[in-house]
Amino acid sequence: MANKTSARAQLPVRGHAPERGKAADTRFIIAAFTLATRRALCVVAAASVACSASARAANICSDARSASSDSAGQSQWNGWGATADNRRFQNSRDARLRATDLPQLRLKWVFAFDGATMAYGQPAVVGHHLYVGSENGRVYSLAARTGCEHWEFQAGAGVRTAIVAGPGKLLYFGDQKGSVYALEAATGALRWKVQADPHPAAMITGTPQLWRGRLYVPVASYEENFAPDPHYACCTFRGSIIALDARTGRRVWQSYMIDQKAAEIGLNKSGAAALGPSGAALWSSPTIDARRSILYVATGNNYSRPVTRHSDSVVAIDAATGRIRWSRQFTENDAYNAGCLDFMDPKRTNCPADPGDDFDFGSPPVLAKSASGKDVLIAAQKSGVVYGLDPARGGAVIWKRRIGIGGPLGGIEWGAAASSGKVYVALSDCNWKPFDRIVDGKHVSVTDLDSDAGGGLFALNITDGAIVWKAPPAKACAGREHCSPAQLAPVTAINGAIFSGSLDGHIRAYSAHSGVVLWDEDTERDFAPVNGARGHGGSINGAGPVVAGGFVYVSSGYSRFGEVPGNVLLAFARSK
Fold first, then answer.
1. pLDDT, tens only, 517-565
2. Read out DSSP for 149-196?
3. How many CB atoms sit inside 10 A of residue 188's CB?
4. Quick check: pTM over 0.85?
5. Do the Cβ atoms of 89 and 419 come closer than 8 Å?
6. Which domains does the chain have, with CATH numbers?
7. Residues 6 or more apart from 513 whose CB is under 8 A from it?
8. 158 Cβ contact partners less than 8 Å away, ≥ 6 residues apart
9. Are 433 and 10 in contact (CB under 8 A)?
10. How far apart are CA 277 and CA 171, in angstroms?
Protein backbone atom coordinates (compact mmCIF):
# COMPACT_ATOMS: atom_id res chain seq x y z
CA MET A 1 0.00 0.00 0.00
CA ALA A 2 2.87 2.42 0.71
CA ASN A 3 4.24 2.00 -2.80
CA LYS A 4 0.82 2.58 -4.29
CA THR A 5 0.35 5.81 -2.32
CA SER A 6 3.79 7.04 -3.34
CA ALA A 7 3.08 6.40 -7.01
CA ARG A 8 -0.28 8.15 -6.85
CA ALA A 9 1.35 11.33 -5.56
CA GLN A 10 2.71 11.91 -9.07
CA LEU A 11 -0.66 11.58 -10.77
CA PRO A 12 -3.21 14.29 -11.52
CA VAL A 13 -6.92 13.77 -11.29
CA ARG A 14 -9.15 13.90 -14.33
CA GLY A 15 -8.70 17.48 -15.50
CA HIS A 16 -11.82 18.63 -17.24
CA ALA A 17 -11.71 22.10 -15.78
CA PRO A 18 -11.72 25.28 -17.82
CA GLU A 19 -11.18 28.73 -16.30
CA ARG A 20 -10.82 28.49 -12.51
CA GLY A 21 -10.54 24.70 -12.39
CA LYS A 22 -7.83 24.70 -15.04
CA ALA A 23 -5.45 26.51 -12.71
CA ALA A 24 -4.91 23.35 -10.70
CA ASP A 25 -4.00 21.44 -13.87
CA THR A 26 -1.61 24.16 -15.04
CA ARG A 27 0.70 23.59 -12.05
CA PHE A 28 1.26 20.03 -13.23
CA ILE A 29 1.59 20.93 -16.92
CA ILE A 30 4.19 23.63 -16.33
CA ALA A 31 6.21 21.25 -14.17
CA ALA A 32 6.14 18.66 -16.93
CA PHE A 33 6.84 20.78 -19.99
CA THR A 34 10.31 21.68 -21.20
CA LEU A 35 10.98 25.22 -22.31
CA ALA A 36 10.80 24.14 -25.94
CA THR A 37 7.30 22.73 -25.50
CA ARG A 38 6.06 25.83 -23.71
CA ARG A 39 7.43 27.98 -26.53
CA ALA A 40 5.71 25.71 -29.06
CA LEU A 41 2.39 26.23 -27.29
CA CYS A 42 2.83 29.99 -27.52
CA VAL A 43 3.81 29.85 -31.19
CA VAL A 44 0.78 27.75 -32.13
CA ALA A 45 -1.61 29.99 -30.23
CA ALA A 46 -0.08 33.20 -31.55
CA ALA A 47 -0.03 31.96 -35.12
CA SER A 48 -3.66 30.88 -34.87
CA VAL A 49 -4.75 34.26 -33.56
CA ALA A 50 -2.89 35.90 -36.42
CA CYS A 51 -4.75 33.82 -39.01
CA SER A 52 -5.93 36.30 -41.63
CA ALA A 53 -9.57 36.97 -42.34
CA SER A 54 -8.85 36.50 -46.03
CA ALA A 55 -7.64 32.92 -45.45
CA ARG A 56 -10.86 32.04 -43.65
CA ALA A 57 -12.93 33.74 -46.34
CA ALA A 58 -11.21 31.63 -48.97
CA ASN A 59 -12.42 28.49 -47.14
CA ILE A 60 -16.11 29.43 -47.14
CA CYS A 61 -18.06 26.79 -49.06
CA SER A 62 -19.03 27.93 -52.53
CA ASP A 63 -21.60 25.22 -53.28
CA ALA A 64 -25.29 25.94 -52.83
CA ARG A 65 -26.12 22.90 -50.70
CA SER A 66 -27.78 23.88 -47.43
CA ALA A 67 -26.14 22.81 -44.15
CA SER A 68 -29.25 20.80 -43.35
CA SER A 69 -29.45 17.95 -40.83
CA ASP A 70 -31.64 15.93 -43.22
CA SER A 71 -29.78 12.63 -43.56
CA ALA A 72 -32.24 10.50 -45.53
CA GLY A 73 -30.28 7.95 -47.53
CA GLN A 74 -26.93 9.51 -46.59
CA SER A 75 -24.02 8.30 -44.46
CA GLN A 76 -23.88 9.57 -40.92
CA TRP A 77 -22.24 9.30 -37.54
CA ASN A 78 -24.57 11.20 -35.26
CA GLY A 79 -23.65 12.03 -31.66
CA TRP A 80 -21.17 10.14 -29.51
CA GLY A 81 -21.63 6.45 -30.18
CA ALA A 82 -23.19 6.54 -33.69
CA THR A 83 -26.24 4.73 -32.29
CA ALA A 84 -28.24 5.20 -29.09
CA ASP A 85 -26.75 2.04 -27.54
CA ASN A 86 -23.26 3.65 -27.64
CA ARG A 87 -21.64 0.68 -29.40
CA ARG A 88 -19.38 2.97 -31.46
CA PHE A 89 -19.82 0.58 -34.39
CA GLN A 90 -20.28 1.91 -37.91
CA ASN A 91 -22.13 -0.36 -40.32
CA SER A 92 -20.82 -0.99 -43.83
CA ARG A 93 -23.47 1.14 -45.53
CA ASP A 94 -22.55 4.26 -43.55
CA ALA A 95 -18.82 3.54 -43.25
CA ARG A 96 -18.33 2.93 -47.00
CA LEU A 97 -14.94 1.62 -45.98
CA ARG A 98 -13.66 -1.93 -45.65
CA ALA A 99 -10.76 -3.31 -43.66
CA THR A 100 -8.99 -4.09 -46.94
CA ASP A 101 -9.19 -0.39 -47.88
CA LEU A 102 -7.29 0.84 -44.84
CA PRO A 103 -3.72 0.57 -46.18
CA GLN A 104 -4.81 2.99 -48.93
CA LEU A 105 -5.98 5.71 -46.54
CA ARG A 106 -4.43 9.10 -47.27
CA LEU A 107 -4.86 12.54 -45.74
CA LYS A 108 -7.48 14.50 -47.71
CA TRP A 109 -7.88 17.70 -45.74
CA VAL A 110 -7.05 19.35 -42.40
CA PHE A 111 -9.00 21.96 -40.42
CA ALA A 112 -7.29 23.90 -37.63
CA PHE A 113 -9.15 25.21 -34.58
CA ASP A 114 -8.05 28.83 -34.52
CA GLY A 115 -6.44 29.79 -31.20
CA ALA A 116 -6.79 26.34 -29.58
CA THR A 117 -4.09 24.09 -28.13
CA MET A 118 -6.32 21.03 -27.80
CA ALA A 119 -8.64 19.27 -30.24
CA TYR A 120 -10.97 17.34 -27.98
CA GLY A 121 -14.29 17.72 -29.81
CA GLN A 122 -15.57 14.63 -31.63
CA PRO A 123 -17.12 15.43 -35.02
CA ALA A 124 -20.58 14.35 -36.11
CA VAL A 125 -21.27 13.62 -39.77
CA VAL A 126 -24.71 13.93 -41.33
CA GLY A 127 -24.70 13.42 -45.08
CA HIS A 128 -22.55 16.06 -46.74
CA HIS A 129 -22.04 18.00 -43.51
CA LEU A 130 -19.71 17.69 -40.54
CA TYR A 131 -20.34 19.44 -37.22
CA VAL A 132 -17.65 19.84 -34.57
CA GLY A 133 -17.00 21.85 -31.41
CA SER A 134 -13.69 23.20 -30.13
CA GLU A 135 -11.73 24.15 -27.04
CA ASN A 136 -12.30 27.85 -27.66
CA GLY A 137 -16.08 27.41 -27.85
CA ARG A 138 -16.52 27.72 -31.59
CA VAL A 139 -18.86 25.22 -33.25
CA TYR A 140 -18.35 24.69 -36.96
CA SER A 141 -20.41 23.37 -39.85
CA LEU A 142 -18.00 22.04 -42.50
CA ALA A 143 -18.32 20.19 -45.78
CA ALA A 144 -17.55 16.58 -44.90
CA ARG A 145 -15.58 15.90 -48.10
CA THR A 146 -13.52 19.10 -48.32
CA GLY A 147 -13.44 20.87 -44.94
CA CYS A 148 -14.78 24.14 -46.33
CA GLU A 149 -16.89 26.11 -43.87
CA HIS A 150 -20.63 26.74 -43.98
CA TRP A 151 -20.87 28.67 -40.72
CA GLU A 152 -19.51 28.96 -37.20
CA PHE A 153 -21.16 29.69 -33.85
CA GLN A 154 -19.50 31.03 -30.71
CA ALA A 155 -20.59 29.24 -27.52
CA GLY A 156 -19.96 30.59 -24.03
CA ALA A 157 -17.19 28.07 -23.24
CA GLY A 158 -15.29 25.16 -24.76
CA VAL A 159 -17.37 22.46 -26.45
CA ARG A 160 -16.13 18.97 -25.70
CA THR A 161 -19.30 17.05 -26.49
CA ALA A 162 -20.08 15.67 -29.90
CA ILE A 163 -22.86 17.42 -31.81
CA VAL A 164 -26.27 15.72 -32.03
CA ALA A 165 -28.39 16.35 -35.14
CA GLY A 166 -32.14 16.07 -34.70
CA PRO A 167 -34.99 15.38 -37.10
CA GLY A 168 -36.26 18.92 -36.61
CA LYS A 169 -33.14 20.28 -38.35
CA LEU A 170 -31.66 21.31 -35.01
CA LEU A 171 -28.22 20.62 -33.56
CA TYR A 172 -27.62 20.01 -29.85
CA PHE A 173 -24.53 20.14 -27.62
CA GLY A 174 -23.25 21.23 -24.21
CA ASP A 175 -20.34 23.40 -23.10
CA GLN A 176 -17.76 23.50 -20.32
CA LYS A 177 -19.83 25.95 -18.26
CA GLY A 178 -22.89 23.71 -18.12
CA SER A 179 -24.96 25.35 -20.86
CA VAL A 180 -27.01 23.33 -23.38
CA TYR A 181 -27.64 24.70 -26.86
CA ALA A 182 -29.96 24.10 -29.81
CA LEU A 183 -28.87 25.61 -33.14
CA GLU A 184 -30.50 25.70 -36.54
CA ALA A 185 -28.49 23.28 -38.68
CA ALA A 186 -28.82 25.34 -41.85
CA THR A 187 -27.47 28.61 -40.45
CA GLY A 188 -26.02 28.07 -36.97
CA ALA A 189 -28.57 30.48 -35.50
CA LEU A 190 -29.34 29.95 -31.82
CA ARG A 191 -32.79 28.44 -31.21
CA TRP A 192 -32.51 28.08 -27.43
CA LYS A 193 -29.97 27.89 -24.60
CA VAL A 194 -30.49 26.63 -21.04
CA GLN A 195 -28.29 26.11 -17.99
CA ALA A 196 -28.20 22.43 -17.06
CA ASP A 197 -27.43 22.96 -13.38
CA PRO A 198 -27.07 26.09 -11.20
CA HIS A 199 -23.82 24.96 -9.55
CA PRO A 200 -21.01 27.38 -10.58
CA ALA A 201 -18.67 24.49 -11.44
CA ALA A 202 -21.17 22.54 -13.55
CA MET A 203 -19.95 21.42 -16.97
CA ILE A 204 -20.98 19.04 -19.74
CA THR A 205 -18.42 16.61 -21.12
CA GLY A 206 -20.78 13.75 -22.00
CA THR A 207 -22.66 14.08 -25.28
CA PRO A 208 -26.45 14.44 -24.89
CA GLN A 209 -28.77 11.77 -26.27
CA LEU A 210 -31.83 12.65 -28.34
CA TRP A 211 -34.70 10.17 -28.09
CA ARG A 212 -38.44 10.46 -28.64
CA GLY A 213 -38.49 14.25 -28.57
CA ARG A 214 -36.40 14.63 -25.43
CA LEU A 215 -32.76 15.59 -25.00
CA TYR A 216 -31.03 13.74 -22.15
CA VAL A 217 -28.03 15.66 -20.82
CA PRO A 218 -25.42 14.33 -18.33
CA VAL A 219 -23.96 16.89 -15.93
CA ALA A 220 -20.41 16.79 -14.51
CA SER A 221 -18.26 19.43 -12.77
CA TYR A 222 -14.73 20.62 -12.18
CA GLU A 223 -15.29 21.37 -8.48
CA GLU A 224 -12.88 18.63 -7.42
CA ASN A 225 -10.12 20.78 -8.94
CA PHE A 226 -10.92 23.60 -6.50
CA ALA A 227 -9.97 21.38 -3.57
CA PRO A 228 -6.21 22.21 -3.50
CA ASP A 229 -7.20 25.70 -2.31
CA PRO A 230 -7.08 25.24 1.50
CA HIS A 231 -9.66 28.00 1.96
CA TYR A 232 -12.20 26.46 -0.41
CA ALA A 233 -15.26 24.95 1.28
CA CYS A 234 -15.26 21.53 -0.39
CA CYS A 235 -17.58 20.30 -1.85
CA THR A 236 -21.22 20.74 -2.92
CA PHE A 237 -21.73 19.57 -6.53
CA ARG A 238 -24.08 16.64 -7.25
CA GLY A 239 -23.97 14.78 -10.57
CA SER A 240 -27.26 14.52 -12.43
CA ILE A 241 -28.98 13.89 -15.73
CA ILE A 242 -31.66 16.21 -17.07
CA ALA A 243 -34.40 15.67 -19.62
CA LEU A 244 -35.25 18.63 -21.83
CA ASP A 245 -37.98 19.11 -24.41
CA ALA A 246 -35.89 19.03 -27.59
CA ARG A 247 -38.03 21.60 -29.37
CA THR A 248 -38.18 24.27 -26.65
CA GLY A 249 -35.48 23.44 -24.09
CA ARG A 250 -38.08 23.18 -21.32
CA ARG A 251 -36.87 21.10 -18.38
CA VAL A 252 -38.96 17.93 -17.96
CA TRP A 253 -37.07 16.37 -15.05
CA GLN A 254 -33.68 16.25 -13.35
CA SER A 255 -32.43 13.14 -11.58
CA TYR A 256 -29.57 13.55 -9.08
CA MET A 257 -27.09 10.78 -8.30
CA ILE A 258 -26.88 11.96 -4.68
CA ASP A 259 -30.19 12.20 -2.86
CA GLN A 260 -29.44 14.95 -0.36
CA LYS A 261 -27.84 18.37 -0.83
CA ALA A 262 -24.42 18.95 0.71
CA ALA A 263 -24.29 20.21 4.28
CA GLU A 264 -21.51 21.25 6.63
CA ILE A 265 -19.95 18.22 8.29
CA GLY A 266 -17.08 19.99 10.06
CA LEU A 267 -14.03 22.14 9.30
CA ASN A 268 -10.97 21.40 7.21
CA LYS A 269 -7.41 21.90 8.47
CA SER A 270 -7.44 25.60 7.56
CA GLY A 271 -10.75 26.27 9.27
CA ALA A 272 -12.90 26.40 6.13
CA ALA A 273 -16.19 24.53 6.09
CA ALA A 274 -16.02 20.89 5.06
CA LEU A 275 -19.14 19.97 3.08
CA GLY A 276 -20.68 16.79 1.77
CA PRO A 277 -21.83 14.57 0.26
CA SER A 278 -20.69 15.61 -3.22
CA GLY A 279 -19.49 14.30 -6.57
CA ALA A 280 -20.87 11.34 -8.55
CA ALA A 281 -20.46 13.35 -11.75
CA LEU A 282 -21.68 12.03 -15.10
CA TRP A 283 -18.72 12.36 -17.48
CA SER A 284 -20.11 10.39 -20.40
CA SER A 285 -23.07 10.08 -22.72
CA PRO A 286 -26.17 8.21 -21.50
CA THR A 287 -27.07 4.95 -23.25
CA ILE A 288 -30.61 4.28 -24.49
CA ASP A 289 -32.33 0.93 -23.96
CA ALA A 290 -35.33 1.42 -26.25
CA ARG A 291 -36.80 -1.98 -25.41
CA ARG A 292 -37.02 -1.18 -21.69
CA SER A 293 -37.39 2.64 -21.97
CA ILE A 294 -34.32 3.04 -19.76
CA LEU A 295 -31.29 5.31 -19.76
CA TYR A 296 -28.03 3.85 -18.46
CA VAL A 297 -25.49 6.26 -17.01
CA ALA A 298 -22.09 5.70 -15.42
CA THR A 299 -21.03 7.86 -12.48
CA GLY A 300 -17.86 9.25 -10.93
CA ASN A 301 -16.37 9.18 -7.44
CA ASN A 302 -17.42 11.28 -4.46
CA TYR A 303 -15.43 14.50 -3.93
CA SER A 304 -15.93 14.55 -0.16
CA ARG A 305 -17.41 12.47 2.61
CA PRO A 306 -19.83 10.98 3.38
CA VAL A 307 -19.68 8.55 0.46
CA THR A 308 -22.91 7.71 -1.35
CA ARG A 309 -24.54 4.65 -2.90
CA HIS A 310 -24.61 5.77 -6.56
CA SER A 311 -20.98 6.86 -6.93
CA ASP A 312 -18.69 4.74 -9.18
CA SER A 313 -21.85 3.04 -10.42
CA VAL A 314 -23.94 2.11 -13.42
CA VAL A 315 -27.43 3.51 -12.88
CA ALA A 316 -30.62 2.65 -14.79
CA ILE A 317 -33.07 5.55 -15.08
CA ASP A 318 -36.66 5.55 -16.30
CA ALA A 319 -36.63 7.67 -19.46
CA ALA A 320 -40.14 9.00 -18.89
CA THR A 321 -39.91 10.02 -15.25
CA GLY A 322 -36.23 10.20 -14.26
CA ARG A 323 -36.82 7.66 -11.48
CA ILE A 324 -33.87 5.39 -10.71
CA ARG A 325 -34.87 1.82 -11.55
CA TRP A 326 -31.68 0.16 -10.25
CA SER A 327 -28.06 0.93 -9.48
CA ARG A 328 -24.94 -1.23 -9.35
CA GLN A 329 -21.94 0.18 -7.45
CA PHE A 330 -18.48 -1.15 -8.32
CA THR A 331 -16.17 0.78 -5.97
CA GLU A 332 -17.31 1.71 -2.49
CA ASN A 333 -15.73 4.34 -0.24
CA ASP A 334 -14.15 6.25 -3.17
CA ALA A 335 -13.93 9.86 -1.95
CA TYR A 336 -11.18 11.71 -3.80
CA ASN A 337 -10.30 15.16 -5.16
CA ALA A 338 -7.31 17.13 -6.45
CA GLY A 339 -6.45 18.15 -2.89
CA CYS A 340 -5.24 14.57 -2.32
CA LEU A 341 -2.22 15.22 -4.56
CA ASP A 342 0.92 16.24 -2.70
CA PHE A 343 2.16 18.50 -5.51
CA MET A 344 -1.20 20.30 -5.49
CA ASP A 345 -1.47 20.70 -1.71
CA PRO A 346 1.28 19.15 0.44
CA LYS A 347 -0.96 19.47 3.51
CA ARG A 348 -3.90 17.75 1.78
CA THR A 349 -6.22 20.23 3.46
CA ASN A 350 -9.37 19.22 1.62
CA CYS A 351 -8.46 15.60 0.97
CA PRO A 352 -10.97 13.21 2.58
CA ALA A 353 -9.65 10.97 5.33
CA ASP A 354 -8.58 7.64 3.87
CA PRO A 355 -9.18 8.74 0.25
CA GLY A 356 -10.26 6.28 -2.41
CA ASP A 357 -8.55 5.40 -5.68
CA ASP A 358 -10.43 7.77 -8.05
CA PHE A 359 -11.94 4.79 -9.88
CA ASP A 360 -14.83 6.63 -11.49
CA PHE A 361 -16.37 5.82 -14.86
CA GLY A 362 -15.39 8.07 -17.77
CA SER A 363 -16.79 5.66 -20.35
CA PRO A 364 -20.48 5.31 -21.15
CA PRO A 365 -22.16 1.93 -20.72
CA VAL A 366 -22.39 -0.03 -23.99
CA LEU A 367 -25.56 -2.00 -24.70
CA ALA A 368 -24.45 -4.93 -26.85
CA LYS A 369 -25.52 -8.44 -27.77
CA SER A 370 -23.71 -11.70 -27.15
CA ALA A 371 -23.26 -14.26 -29.91
CA SER A 372 -26.54 -15.87 -28.79
CA GLY A 373 -28.43 -12.57 -29.05
CA LYS A 374 -28.67 -11.84 -25.31
CA ASP A 375 -28.47 -8.21 -24.15
CA VAL A 376 -25.28 -7.48 -22.20
CA LEU A 377 -24.46 -4.08 -20.73
CA ILE A 378 -20.72 -3.42 -20.84
CA ALA A 379 -19.18 -1.16 -18.17
CA ALA A 380 -15.47 -0.27 -18.44
CA GLN A 381 -13.94 1.43 -15.39
CA LYS A 382 -10.82 3.41 -14.55
CA SER A 383 -9.98 0.59 -12.17
CA GLY A 384 -8.84 -1.40 -15.21
CA VAL A 385 -11.78 -3.80 -14.94
CA VAL A 386 -14.45 -4.41 -17.60
CA TYR A 387 -17.83 -5.77 -16.50
CA GLY A 388 -20.61 -7.55 -18.35
CA LEU A 389 -24.00 -6.84 -16.74
CA ASP A 390 -27.46 -8.30 -17.26
CA PRO A 391 -29.91 -5.41 -17.85
CA ALA A 392 -32.84 -7.78 -17.41
CA ARG A 393 -31.77 -8.63 -13.83
CA GLY A 394 -31.05 -5.25 -12.30
CA GLY A 395 -27.49 -5.06 -13.61
CA ALA A 396 -26.41 -8.38 -12.12
CA VAL A 397 -22.75 -9.05 -12.92
CA ILE A 398 -22.40 -11.78 -15.57
CA TRP A 399 -18.61 -11.52 -15.76
CA LYS A 400 -15.70 -9.22 -15.01
CA ARG A 401 -12.28 -9.03 -16.59
CA ARG A 402 -9.25 -7.10 -15.40
CA ILE A 403 -7.14 -5.76 -18.27
CA GLY A 404 -5.06 -3.11 -16.46
CA ILE A 405 -3.82 -1.67 -13.17
CA GLY A 406 -6.10 1.37 -13.04
CA GLY A 407 -5.63 4.78 -11.42
CA PRO A 408 -6.64 8.46 -11.68
CA LEU A 409 -5.86 8.38 -15.41
CA GLY A 410 -5.59 4.61 -15.68
CA GLY A 411 -7.80 1.74 -16.68
CA ILE A 412 -10.36 2.53 -19.36
CA GLU A 413 -10.96 6.26 -19.78
CA TRP A 414 -13.39 7.25 -22.55
CA GLY A 415 -15.12 4.31 -24.16
CA ALA A 416 -15.29 0.89 -25.77
CA ALA A 417 -16.80 -0.41 -29.01
CA ALA A 418 -18.81 -3.56 -29.63
CA SER A 419 -19.69 -5.67 -32.68
CA SER A 420 -20.04 -9.31 -33.75
CA GLY A 421 -20.08 -10.73 -30.23
CA LYS A 422 -16.94 -8.91 -29.07
CA VAL A 423 -16.22 -5.73 -27.13
CA TYR A 424 -13.05 -3.81 -27.95
CA VAL A 425 -11.40 -1.90 -25.11
CA ALA A 426 -8.34 0.38 -25.18
CA LEU A 427 -6.20 0.60 -22.05
CA SER A 428 -4.81 3.83 -20.61
CA ASP A 429 -2.81 3.05 -17.44
CA CYS A 430 -1.06 6.35 -18.12
CA ASN A 431 1.65 7.21 -15.62
CA TRP A 432 4.29 9.82 -14.90
CA LYS A 433 7.80 9.70 -13.48
CA PRO A 434 10.46 12.26 -12.46
CA PHE A 435 13.26 13.21 -14.83
CA ASP A 436 16.34 15.40 -14.49
CA ARG A 437 16.22 17.98 -17.29
CA ILE A 438 18.22 21.03 -18.28
CA VAL A 439 15.92 24.05 -18.50
CA ASP A 440 17.46 27.46 -19.26
CA GLY A 441 20.90 26.01 -18.54
CA LYS A 442 19.95 24.64 -15.12
CA HIS A 443 19.33 21.10 -13.90
CA VAL A 444 15.68 20.83 -12.93
CA SER A 445 13.69 17.84 -11.70
CA VAL A 446 10.45 17.62 -13.66
CA THR A 447 7.61 15.14 -13.92
CA ASP A 448 6.84 13.87 -17.40
CA LEU A 449 4.87 11.08 -19.01
CA ASP A 450 6.36 7.62 -18.57
CA SER A 451 7.08 6.45 -22.12
CA ASP A 452 7.06 2.80 -21.02
CA ALA A 453 3.75 2.72 -19.14
CA GLY A 454 0.27 1.94 -20.38
CA GLY A 455 -1.46 1.16 -23.65
CA GLY A 456 -2.82 -1.87 -25.42
CA LEU A 457 -6.06 -2.92 -27.12
CA PHE A 458 -8.19 -5.88 -26.00
CA ALA A 459 -10.94 -7.88 -27.66
CA LEU A 460 -13.23 -9.58 -25.13
CA ASN A 461 -15.99 -12.10 -25.72
CA ILE A 462 -19.28 -10.44 -24.81
CA THR A 463 -20.74 -13.72 -23.50
CA ASP A 464 -18.15 -14.45 -20.81
CA GLY A 465 -15.50 -11.70 -20.90
CA ALA A 466 -12.76 -14.04 -22.09
CA ILE A 467 -9.84 -12.30 -23.84
CA VAL A 468 -10.03 -13.17 -27.55
CA TRP A 469 -6.85 -11.27 -28.41
CA LYS A 470 -4.63 -8.50 -27.11
CA ALA A 471 -2.67 -6.01 -29.19
CA PRO A 472 0.37 -4.84 -27.20
CA PRO A 473 1.15 -1.11 -26.81
CA ALA A 474 3.15 0.38 -29.65
CA LYS A 475 6.78 1.37 -29.19
CA ALA A 476 6.71 4.82 -30.76
CA CYS A 477 8.03 6.99 -27.90
CA ALA A 478 11.77 6.36 -28.18
CA GLY A 479 13.63 9.67 -27.83
CA ARG A 480 10.42 11.74 -27.56
CA GLU A 481 9.39 13.98 -24.68
CA HIS A 482 5.81 14.17 -23.41
CA CYS A 483 5.11 10.80 -25.03
CA SER A 484 3.13 7.84 -23.74
CA PRO A 485 1.73 4.69 -25.36
CA ALA A 486 -1.42 5.02 -23.23
CA GLN A 487 -4.67 4.76 -25.19
CA LEU A 488 -7.24 6.94 -23.43
CA ALA A 489 -9.39 7.91 -26.41
CA PRO A 490 -12.54 5.89 -27.18
CA VAL A 491 -12.25 3.23 -29.85
CA THR A 492 -14.34 2.85 -32.99
CA ALA A 493 -15.29 -0.32 -34.87
CA ILE A 494 -16.21 -1.07 -38.48
CA ASN A 495 -16.62 -4.49 -40.04
CA GLY A 496 -13.21 -6.13 -39.81
CA ALA A 497 -11.29 -3.28 -38.15
CA ILE A 498 -10.91 -1.32 -34.91
CA PHE A 499 -9.56 2.27 -34.70
CA SER A 500 -7.72 3.53 -31.62
CA GLY A 501 -5.77 6.74 -30.95
CA SER A 502 -2.91 7.13 -28.49
CA LEU A 503 -1.10 9.79 -26.49
CA ASP A 504 1.89 9.06 -28.75
CA GLY A 505 0.00 10.93 -31.49
CA HIS A 506 -0.70 7.88 -33.63
CA ILE A 507 -4.06 6.75 -34.94
CA ARG A 508 -4.04 3.04 -35.71
CA ALA A 509 -6.44 0.54 -37.23
CA TYR A 510 -6.29 -3.05 -36.00
CA SER A 511 -7.71 -6.23 -37.44
CA ALA A 512 -10.93 -7.09 -35.60
CA HIS A 513 -10.03 -10.75 -35.96
CA SER A 514 -6.43 -10.78 -34.70
CA GLY A 515 -5.37 -7.35 -33.41
CA VAL A 516 -2.71 -6.98 -36.12
CA VAL A 517 -2.12 -3.33 -37.10
CA LEU A 518 -3.56 -2.62 -40.56
CA TRP A 519 -2.88 1.12 -40.75
CA ASP A 520 -0.79 3.55 -38.68
CA GLU A 521 -0.58 7.33 -39.05
CA ASP A 522 1.55 9.65 -36.90
CA THR A 523 -0.42 12.88 -36.41
CA GLU A 524 2.19 14.69 -34.30
CA ARG A 525 3.44 17.07 -37.00
CA ASP A 526 2.73 20.33 -38.76
CA PHE A 527 -0.10 20.55 -41.28
CA ALA A 528 -1.39 23.02 -43.87
CA PRO A 529 -5.08 23.44 -42.93
CA VAL A 530 -7.68 24.43 -45.51
CA ASN A 531 -8.81 27.39 -43.37
CA GLY A 532 -5.38 29.07 -43.37
CA ALA A 533 -4.65 28.83 -39.64
CA ARG A 534 -1.45 27.23 -38.44
CA GLY A 535 -2.09 23.59 -37.57
CA HIS A 536 -0.17 21.01 -35.58
CA GLY A 537 -1.18 17.56 -34.38
CA GLY A 538 -0.32 16.06 -31.02
CA SER A 539 -1.59 13.56 -28.49
CA ILE A 540 -4.96 11.93 -29.14
CA ASN A 541 -7.37 11.91 -26.21
CA GLY A 542 -10.99 12.66 -25.39
CA ALA A 543 -12.51 12.27 -28.85
CA GLY A 544 -12.73 9.02 -30.78
CA PRO A 545 -12.29 8.41 -34.51
CA VAL A 546 -15.42 8.88 -36.62
CA VAL A 547 -15.99 6.84 -39.79
CA ALA A 548 -18.63 7.88 -42.33
CA GLY A 549 -19.00 8.16 -46.10
CA GLY A 550 -15.61 6.60 -46.84
CA PHE A 551 -13.75 9.01 -44.54
CA VAL A 552 -12.00 8.59 -41.19
CA TYR A 553 -12.02 11.78 -39.08
CA VAL A 554 -9.52 12.19 -36.24
CA SER A 555 -9.09 15.03 -33.71
CA SER A 556 -5.42 15.48 -32.73
CA GLY A 557 -3.94 17.52 -29.89
CA TYR A 558 -4.25 17.30 -26.10
CA SER A 559 -2.10 19.07 -23.53
CA ARG A 560 -3.89 19.04 -20.19
CA PHE A 561 -1.51 16.67 -18.39
CA GLY A 562 1.78 17.29 -20.12
CA GLU A 563 0.91 15.63 -23.43
CA VAL A 564 1.64 17.18 -26.84
CA PRO A 565 -0.63 20.10 -27.77
CA GLY A 566 -2.38 20.29 -31.11
CA ASN A 567 -5.35 21.90 -32.81
CA VAL A 568 -6.37 19.93 -35.89
CA LEU A 569 -9.20 17.83 -37.29
CA LEU A 570 -7.82 15.39 -39.87
CA ALA A 571 -9.84 13.74 -42.66
CA PHE A 572 -8.52 10.54 -44.28
CA ALA A 573 -9.94 8.65 -47.25
CA ARG A 574 -8.80 6.08 -49.80
CA SER A 575 -6.35 7.24 -52.42
CA LYS A 576 -7.84 7.31 -55.90
1. 999 999 999 999 999 999 999 999 999 999 999 999 999 999 988 899 9
2. EEEEEE-SS---SPPEE-TTSEEEEE-TTSEEEEEETTT--EEEEEES
3. 18
4. yes
5. yes
6. 2-574 (2.140.10.10)
7. 496
8. 18, 120, 133, 134, 135, 136, 137, 175, 176
9. yes
10. 35
